[in-house]
Amino acid sequence: MNAPIPDHALPTFEQRRVPPAMLAALQQRFGERCSTAAAVREQHGRDESPFPVTPPEAVVFCDSTEDVAAVLRLAAEHAVPVIPYGAGSSLEGHLLAVQGGISVDLSAMTRIVGVNPEDLTITVQAGVTREQLNQEIKDTGLFFPIDPGANASLGGMAATRASGTNAVRYGTMRENVLGLTVVTAAGEVIRTGTRAKKSSAGYDLTRLFVGSEGTLGVITEVTLKLYPLPEAVSAAICHFPTIAGAVDATIRVIQMGVPIARCELLDVNAVRAVNAQSRLGLREHPMLLMEFHGSEASVQEQAEMVQAITAEMGGEAFEWASRPEERTRLWAARHKAYFAGMQANPGCRSVTTDTCVPISRLAEIIDASIADAEATGLPYYIVGHVGDGNFHLAYLVKEGDAAQRALAEGASLRMVQRAIALEGTCTGEHGIGLHKMDFLVDEAGTGGVAMMRAIKHALDPQNILNPGKIFAW
Amino acid sequence: MNAPIPDHALPTFEQRRVPPAMLAALQQRFGERCSTAAAVREQHGRDESPFPVTPPEAVVFCDSTEDVAAVLRLAAEHAVPVIPYGAGSSLEGHLLAVQGGISVDLSAMTRIVGVNPEDLTITVQAGVTREQLNQEIKDTGLFFPIDPGANASLGGMAATRASGTNAVRYGTMRENVLGLTVVTAAGEVIRTGTRAKKSSAGYDLTRLFVGSEGTLGVITEVTLKLYPLPEAVSAAICHFPTIAGAVDATIRVIQMGVPIARCELLDVNAVRAVNAQSRLGLREHPMLLMEFHGSEASVQEQAEMVQAITAEMGGEAFEWASRPEERTRLWAARHKAYFAGMQANPGCRSVTTDTCVPISRLAEIIDASIADAEATGLPYYIVGHVGDGNFHLAYLVKEGDAAQRALAEGASLRMVQRAIALEGTCTGEHGIGLHKMDFLVDEAGTGGVAMMRAIKHALDPQNILNPGKIFAW
User: Fold this and answer.
1) pLDDT of A195-209, one tens digit each?
2) Is A347 exposed, middle or buried (0-12, 13-18, 19+ CB in 10 A)?
3) I need a labelling partner for B392 at 20 to 30 A (CA). Which of A46, A95, A466, B214 fits?
4) In chain B, what residues touch A470 (CB-CB under 8 Å)?
5) All domains of chain A, ordered by start, with CATH?
C-alpha cells in the first residue's frame, strides 16, 4: 500500500495517434480553432490534480453542438479519443489525455439558450460558468445555487456530478439538472429529459450522463432548475474549542431537520491559511461557517435553533455577517482555502480527499483521519461540506517528492477504506477520474463496475470518449 | 389515429415457454411457493390498466434476494421472461406477461433491513408498502413522504419512478432512493449507491434502475431517505368558480417559491365522485386541496401567502382542516378518487393520462384537454399534483367497448402531443409500461430510445427482464 497510485492511472504510451487525414479535416473545418501548439496542448493536458501533464495531440475550440458533433464523427471514423474540456477545474485527472487524442474545448460555448423564469428553468451551453449564469439571471429574482467553489463550467459540473457549499439545502447536480443535449460516440445529437419537473418516461438518461465524466457522451447544453432568491439571507461563524464540537453540532443540526443552506467546517489549519491569505482576522480555532436562507421569520427561527445547538456543543458565541459584503468576503475566503493552502506551502501541490459518509459517522471518520494525518507529518488542512457528511482533507506535498506523495496517497486510501466501511463513498463530489479507479471497485464491487463497463461498451464501443477514466476498459 | 393502442403493446402469442426442466427446478426449490394455478396466474397477469389479463406461466413467491437470484439464474439458463410483481398497483400494463414467463412475486419481502434514524435513512425489502414503512418508523419521529395514493410497494415505486401528492415539496423516488440491491439478468446480486447523502462515484446505477420498470434487473431492497415529521401540519381546501382560477393560483404559488407540501387539484367531476363515495359534503366546484408542513410560524406564513394568492385568483375562503382526523378524511377521499370515479360509472374501467408540463404551461394544457374531453362525450374527471405541473385526466370507458376506448385513447394521444409540444413529458409518474411505448419515441426521439435500447441489450442480452415494456426490443 505504499504505491497507491494504480498503474493504469499513469499516462500510457500506447497512444492512439490522430491520423493526418483527420487532422487535415479538423483544420479545414475549424481553421485556427484547431490547435496543435505545444502551449495549448499542455494547458489542456492538466487539471488541478497532482498528476503530471499529459497533453492531447490537438485541441479543437467548439462554438456549438454541431461543432462537437463534427469532431465526434471524425473521431468515430478514426477511433481517436476525445476529451471534453470545460474550465479545467477538475481535481482527479479527468482531463489528462492518457491515450492521446483530441481535447474538445467547450469554454467558448457560453450562450444562454433559453431562460424561463416563470418555470424556474434555464438552458445554457456547456461552457457557461456558474458565475456567468448567476450574473445573467440576476434581474430575474432567481439564482442557481450549486457552488463547487471553483468557477466551473456547467457542463463540467454536470459531468462530475458536482455539488459544493449549498448542496445541503438545494441538492447536487444530480437533483438540479432537468435535461441535457449530448453528442454521442457516433457523433449523433440526443436530447435527454424535458423542462417538466418530473417524469417517468423511460430510462433516466439525464442522470446517467450526470457524473459520467465525459466517458459516455459530450454534454453540450444543460437545462437547470433555478430558485427564487431568498427573501432573507444571513451568515454566521461559530468557533469551537475542538473540531469534535463543531462536527457534533453539525450532526445535531441535520438530525433536527434545520433547513440550513450552508454548513462548512474549517479546521485550525484551514483558518490559518485563509487568515494569511485574506487577512480575515478569524480566531484560529476550528469553526463552522453557516448560511441561512428563507423568509425573515424562518431565517430567524433557523438561526435560533442552530445557536442553541452550537452552545450545547461548546461553541462560542455566533458572529453574524448580515451585510452582503461581509458575507461575500467570508465565502470568498472559504472558496480560496484550496489555493490558500498551497500558497502557505510554496512548491507544494494538493492531494485532496473527498469522502462522504452518513451524517452520524462523520465524527468517527474525521477523528481517525486527523490521527492518521498527524502521523504522516505532512502539512494538511480540512474543509468540508459537513452538513452533507462530506469533507476534504488536503495534504500538501512537495511537487516531485515521491515519498511525500506516497505518504499522502496511503493516508487517502485508508480514509476511503474507512468511509466505505461506514457505508459512505470514496467521492462526494470530485468524481473518480484517474485517481480513484481502484477505490470505485472497493465501493461499487466488481459486479457494479462490470455493469458500468457494460454500459460504456454499449454506448462507446470503440472507447473513444475520455478513455482510461473511471474504470479500466 | 383511431387505433392508438400500438400493435406491439398487445399480448403476443410467440410466448417463450417455460421448459419442464425449469418448472421442476422451481418446484423443487420453492415447493408451494411456486404456483401454476389459474387463479394465481390470472391475478399476476393484470394491473390497474384497462389491458386484457395476460397471465404468466407460473408465479414464484420470493422471500429473499437469494430467492430472486435463484429464479433469475434459472431464467437466464432457459431464456425465460421474468416479471417482478409488487403490489399490483401499476397503471400502464407493466405486469402483463406479454411474452409469457415467470411472475416473481415480492409481496412477502416485507422485512425492514435496517433503520438509521440518526442518519435519516432506512433500508427495506422491496415488498414493504409505503403504509407499512410509515407504520414501522412511527416511533422514530421520522416519515417517508412519497405517496402515490395506492398502497404501493417500495420496490414497485422505485421501478416506476413514482411520486404523488408530496412530491412538490419532497421530490420523487428519483430524489429519495439512496441505493438499491438488484438482481441482474444473470442472477447476480449487486448493490448500488451507499448510505451517504451524495456521491460522485461512477455511473449513477441507482438512478438508472429507478424508473427502469423491471427491464434491467429486479430490485429486491431499497435504501431511502427519511424526513423529520414536521412540527406543524395544516391542510386547507379552497374552491374556485372556474378550474382556470385554481390552476392560475397554483402556478403563482410555485413561482413565488412557497414550500407547499401538497397542492392537489380536483375538478368538479372528481369532487362529485368523492362526495358520492365518501359523503364529504364538499361544495361541487373545482377545488385545491393543500397541505403545509413546517414550524408553527412557517406553516402560518405559507398559509397566509397562499391565502392571499388564491383570493387574488377568485378563490373562495379557505376552509381549514387542522385536526388530524379531518385531514386524514380529506386525503383518503383524494386518494380514492380513482376508485370513486369507477364506482360512479359501474362497468367502466379508467383510461388515465399522466402528462406533466413546465408549471407556466399548465393552464394551457388543462384548458385544451378539457375542451377535448368534453367533445368526446365520455365521462371523465381530473385530479392532479398540479404543484408539479402533473395532472391526471381519467376517462371512464365501458369495459369491452372498443369505440369508447378508441375515443379515450385518441384524446390521450392528443394530450401527450400537447405536453411534448409544451416541453413536458408523456408521463409524470406512472411510467411507460405497454401503454406509452409510442409516446416515448415522440418524447425522447429515436436517438434517445436507441440509447435506452443499447443499455437494455447490454444488461439483458436475452431480453428476459420484463420483455415487451418501455420500448420494442
Assistant:
1) 999 999 999 999 999
2) exposed
3) B214
4) 202-203
5) 7-107 (3.30.43.10), 112-228 (3.30.465.10), 232-421 (3.40.462.10)
